[in-house]
Amino acid sequence: GAGVSQSPRYKVTKRGQDVALRCDPISGHVSLYWYRQALGQGPEFLTYFNYEAQQDKSGLPNDRFSAERPEGSISTLTIQRTEQRDSAMYRCASSSTRGELFFGEGSRLTVL
Amino acid sequence: AQSVTQLDSQVPVFEEAPVELRCNYSSSVSVYLFWYVQYPNQGLQLLLKYLSGSTLVKGINGFEAEFNKSQTSFHLRKPSVHISDTAEYFCAVSVGGSYIPTFGRGTSLIVHP
Which residue is closest to B90 within chain A, CA to CA? Predict the structure, then answer.
């Protein structure tokens, strides 16, 4: 497609369940980013890939969070044993040049 | 590590009035600077960017921003706003070579008729 596509757009889950959020970047974009955005806040960096290599995962809050991009295109952010504090908008972005990011519409996660 | 401060959480303004949204950053090395806009229920989209060269940068929808290295600022301006400019505006900075933008908490621009 023409833009960054994220799915699901909305996810409601019960505490303790695992969730997987998917991101399909703009074709040809080398870099892929995951951010988390709480209500009333700016996006907070989680992790970043160049091709299939995870270059930086310093923003992942704890070891329940993981991400992969096995073929250098689609990426999955997985949250295990979800907690209520994980509720947020999760945003994916892709880039081809010097930090100019193209964002998807986000996946809103609600943990009950 | 770099940080970004957006001094105003909300800026109300009347239609056709000028507006300035303030952004300051902290970094001791060269930076790339960005402004993004987020309309309701949409993703962020790039308004303008400063990578190098002229310190006055023009973006889409009539917005411009000026990089001031001595004041470590990158304020966003528009001479005459429209109702359709009502949105959340985010300033972001990445340190040269990092390519990982750090975002401010955002400024909500509210344009009244």
Answer: A42
- Nearest-angstrom CA–CA distance, A111 and B11: 32
Region B25-50 average pLDDT = 89
Q: Can you say whether residue A59 is alpha, beta or left, with left for phi > 0 and alpha for psi between -120 and 50 degrees?
A: alpha
Strand partners, B58: B64
pLDDT(A2) > 90: no
**Rounded CA gap, A32 and A73, in Å?**
8
Neighbours of B73 (CB within 10 A): 18
Bridge-based pairing of strands A10-13 and A107-111 is: parallel
Interface contact A104-B90, CB threshold 8 A: no
- Report the chain B residue with the minimal C-alpha distance to residue A58: B100
Cβ(B67)–Cβ(B49) below 8 Å: no
Name every chain B residue with its beta carbon within 8 A of the beta carbon of A103. 36, 43-45
